[in-house]
Design brief:
Length: 82
């Protein structure tokens, strides 16, 4: 991602500072912009997927804990001694 951003900024600088390179710089600029947008969308997709799996794992852990509590045998029983 850092290389994409660097090339993106260099192409933008050439567009602004060297007007004779505008056609080539514009093509490079738009290509890098497309890659950057694609990367950011993909990153957010992956991050949201990971968060979704964490929620599923947390739900499963809670269900297992509830199941263990409901089926647990008491470790000590109180007996009324007369």
């Amino acid at each position: 991602m850092m290389i994409t951003i660097a090339v993106f900024l260099v192409a933008l600088a050439f567009m602004v500072l060297v007007p004779s390179t505008i056609p080539v710089s514009t093509i490079i600029y738009l290509a890098m912009l497309g890659l950057l947008i694609g990367y950011i969308r993909y990153y957010f997709f992956l991050e949201n997927t990971v968060q979704h799996w964490y929620r599923i794992a947390d739900d499963l852990h809670e269900r297992v804990e509830m199941f263990d509590r409901s089926t647990a045998v008491p470790t000590h029983e109180t007996h009324n001694e007369a």
